[in-house]
């Protein structure tokens, strides 16, 4: 068959436009488009989904994707139509097919795409996981996140680009999900999913209060969504101690809590260094919030922990080990010693302990033997969208590495 390529279409390529790569997932099954879309977004792509070749034509003309992924659930004929549409528009990105490597249909579609002059990646064999997909498209994954300069927080709020992602906390002995930390993300129309370092303002920025109020509203909205999917789960948000100095902030938060029998309470994580700097106010606030079913977690606790031992009462429900101590503790005696001291201190107060940033089995086993209650880190799960977390929470967590 003759090539369907025509005159080149003017487009800005990934390498030139200084934005993250774009992908289009083409498949008739919504659940596959959703899974692939969420995984690609976590890898730094802007993603669009298409159910048919007709939808793809519009995407090719407006979105200029760098990657096309075909699920082939609609069959080989539909796939060839989509490939013809891509070739007719001079698609110069890469094409990935999903399917059994021995399938005659998959091989035929791949050969057809090659004859059209399209760049066909090796077939991604099914079934596959996140890691397999990452390896298959590794050449397109951005090495660092845009944007530059950072995005103004007020612009992100007004445009509705912000959302919360959730990183599970897993019990060290039972591997049972025991809550999650909500982490803010921005879904920018050009740069895709952007980490908070590019848009979180300083605590004294006038936009910080509005950003904090967004986090509160969204986490409680998501809690209502989760209860329809899996039942209640305890969620944690990050707020600075300074937020509660604003008149009416504490009362406003308490009034927003769900009046639902399944609501187990809310955890507010605050940096250990900030708490130690104003221990009296933090102590009083923790006592007040406890009466409203809100507990304070001391985040990133490191060498400041001896200052907390001076308290007559310890109203904080959770202590999170600073990742600079927890990560790598299996192979570092000094880190293990620091973790041990913090864990012993937390156990003496009745607070549960969380180790975050855990990526290796060695660190996990060391911290479990030490008595740490919960693990949070890539070993079990990365931060994920609310929809993906709802699905994750329906199964037993297993280490990923």
Structural account:
- This protein has 2 domains: 14-140, Rossmann fold (3-Layer(aba) Sandwich), CATH 3.40.50; 153-392, TIM Barrel.
- The strands form 2 sheets. The chain has an 8-stranded mixed beta barrel, surrounded by 5 helices. The chain has a 5-stranded parallel beta sheet with strand order 2-1-3-4-5, sandwiched between helices.
- It is built from 16 helices and 15 strands.
- α3 (53-62) packs parallel to α4 and α4 (76-88) packs parallel to α5.
- With 401 residues, it is α/β, with parallel strands linked by helices.
- The model is unreliable at 1-18 (pLDDT under 50).
- It has helices spanning 14-17, 30-42, 53-62, 76-88, 104-115, 130-136, 153-159, 208-229, 249-256, 272-277, 279-290, 305-308, 323-326, 333-349, 361-370, 386-392, and strands spanning 22-26, 46-50, 67-70, 94-97, 119-120, 162-171, 177-188, 192-194, 235-238, 266-271, 294-301, 318-321, 352-356, 374-376, 384-385.
């Amino acid at each position: 068959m003759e090539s369907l390529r025509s005159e080149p279409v003017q487009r800005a390529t990934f390498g030139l436009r200084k934005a993250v790569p774009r992908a289009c997932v083409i498949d008739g099954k919504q659940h596959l488009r959703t899974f692939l879309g969420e995984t690609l977004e976590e890898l730094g792509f802007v993603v669009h989904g298409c159910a048919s070749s007709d939808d793809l034509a519009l995407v090719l003309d407006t979105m200029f994707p760098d990657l096309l992924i075909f699920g082939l659930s609609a069959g080989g004929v539909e796939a060839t139509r989509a490939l013809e549409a891509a070739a007719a528009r001079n698609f110069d990105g890469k094409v990935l097919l999903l399917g059994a490597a021995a399938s005659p249909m998959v091989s035929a579609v791949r050969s057809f795409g090659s004859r059209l002059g399209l760049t066909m990646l090796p077939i991604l064999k099914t079934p596959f996981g996140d890691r397999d997909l990452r390896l298959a498209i590794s050449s397109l994954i951005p090495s660092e996140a845009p944007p530059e300069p950072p995005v103004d927080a007020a612009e992100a709020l007004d445009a509705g680009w912000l959302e919360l992602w959730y990183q599970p906390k897993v019990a060290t002995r039972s591997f049972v999900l025991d809550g999650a930390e909500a982490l803010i993300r921005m879904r920018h129309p050009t740069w895709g999913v952007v980490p908070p370092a590019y848009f979180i303002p300083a605590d004294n920025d006038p936009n910080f209060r509005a950003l904090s109020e967004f986090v509160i509203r969204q986490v409680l909205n998501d809690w209502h969504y989760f209860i329809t999917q899996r039942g209640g789960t305890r969620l944690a948000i990050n707020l600075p101690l300074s937020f509660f100095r604003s008149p009416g902030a504490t009362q406003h938060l308490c009034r927003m809590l769900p009046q639902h029998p399944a609501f187990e309470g809310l955890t507010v994580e605050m940096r250990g260094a900030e708490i130690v700097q104003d221990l009296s106010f933090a102590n009083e606030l923790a006592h007040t919030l406890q009466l409203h079913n809100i507990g304070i977690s001391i985040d990133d606790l490191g060498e400041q922990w001896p200052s907390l031992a001076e308290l007559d009462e310890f109203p904080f429900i959770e202590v999170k080990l600073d990742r600079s101590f927890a990560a790598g503790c299996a192979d570092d005696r000094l880190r293990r010693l620091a973790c041990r001291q913090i864990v012993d201190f937390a156990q003496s107060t009745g607070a549960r302990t969380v180790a975050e940033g855990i990526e290796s089995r060695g660190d996990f086993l060391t911290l479990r033997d030490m008595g740490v209650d919960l693990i949070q880190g890539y070993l079990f799960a990365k931060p994920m969208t609310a929809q993906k977390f709802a699905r994750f929470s329906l199964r037993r967590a297993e280490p990923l590495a």
